Amino acid sequence: MMNKVKIVVAGPRGNMGKEAVKMVSETEHFSLVAVVDSKHEGMNLSEIEGFHGIDAPVYIDMQKCFEELDVDVLIDLTAPAFGRKHMEIAFANGVRPVVGTTGFTDSDISELRAIAEEKGLGAIIAPNFAIGAILMMKFSQLAAKYLPDVEIIEQHHDRKLDAPSGTAIKTAQLISEVRAEKAQGHPNETEELQGARGADFEGMRIHSVRLPGRVAHQEVIFGGEGQTLTIRHDSINRASFMPGVKLAVESALKIDTLVYGLEHIIE
């Protein structure tokens, strides 16, 4: 019988965290050993509204959690401000982090990768856990070889803190690997209202929409002579991210470096 993967979820009361707790609890070879929350220290998760029947102690202090429990993987779905700190605590305790927060710089990723390799631990940072979104990024990179004029429109709920989204930035980065930097639009264009043309990433324009009722949506629009191509992905609910989280946990156990983006573990 396979040993169960012992998992801690950070940020259990968030929209993504709730789905992750449910996924871990329902996956036969996973075991939810604790959650790390900003409050409810000492309580059991089952005592908190929305988690009836899910047995796991609640910690505020992540270091204390790792010291007291045997943990294989941390699933961190908190906020950009905490992502790096939580990864460093995980590494220091021999725990493999799977992180869904954004806001990591290139230097953050390089430094965290060095720590992961020094410790011999697998780690995954994923701007987006939806398998369809990963395919959208891969298809966009392929299309950009032939249609280099491209703009990205991403839409999210109005509680999202960062803009553009990590997915939009990651998409632009992947496209830039096959596309030479170029300015788009009329060379003498002006913005009558500042920001009308969106963010500029090597000449690509990225536009962010924030509205209630949205979850996570992105379209990548390519323009060519007499034609356009649109590649679009929609997450209708946050359950759409859970197969990717599960894949990331299983993959983190098999590697000894940090991988940024699920596209590197999806063939």
Automatic annotation (TrEMBL):
Residue ranges constituting the Dihydrodipicolinate reductase N-terminal domain according to the UniProt record: 5-129
Gene Ontology terms for molecular function: 4-hydroxy-tetrahydrodipicolinate reductase; NAD binding; NADP binding; oxidoreductase activity, acting on CH or CH2 groups, NAD or NADP as acceptor
Record field: catalytic activity: (S)-2,3,4,5-tetrahydrodipicolinate + NADP(+) + H2O = (2S,4S)-4-hydroxy-2,3,4,5-tetrahydrodipicolinate + NADPH + H(+); (S)-2,3,4,5-tetrahydrodipicolinate + NAD(+) + H2O = (2S,4S)-4-hydroxy-2,3,4,5-tetrahydrodipicolinate + NADH + H(+)
Predominant location category: cytoplasm
Positions annotated to bind NADP(+): 39
UniProt-annotated binding residues for (S)-2,3,4,5-tetrahydrodipicolinate: 157, 166-167
SUPFAM superfamilies named in the record: Glyceraldehyde-3-phosphate dehydrogenase-like, C-terminal domain, NAD(P)-binding Rossmann-fold domains
Keyword entries, A-Z: Amino-acid biosynthesis, Cytoplasm, Diaminopimelate biosynthesis, Lysine biosynthesis, NAD, NADP, Oxidoreductase
Enzyme Commission no: 1.17.1.8
Dihydrodipicolinate reductase C-terminal domain segment(s): 132-265
One of the GO BP terms on file: lysine biosynthetic process via diaminopimelate
Places the protein is found: Cytoplasm
This protein's pathway: Amino-acid biosynthesis; L-lysine biosynthesis via DAP pathway; (S)-tetrahydrodipicolinate from L-aspartate: step 4/4
Binding sites annotated in the UniProt record for NAD(+): 11-16, 100-102, 126-129
Gene3D superfamilies in the record: Dihydrodipicolinate Reductase, domain 2, NAD(P)-binding Rossmann-like Domain
Domain of life, per lineage: Bacteria
Active site: residue positions: 156 (proton donor/acceptor), 160 (proton donor)
A GO CC term assigned to this protein in UniProt: cytosol
Pfam family name, one: DapB_C
Oligomer and partners: Homotetramer.
Function (record text): Catalyzes the conversion of 4-hydroxy-tetrahydrodipicolinate (HTPA) to tetrahydrodipicolinate.
Protein name: 4-hydroxy-tetrahydrodipicolinate reductase
Organism: Halalkalibacter krulwichiae
Taxonomic lineage of the native organism: Bacteria, Bacillati, Bacillota, Bacilli, Bacillales
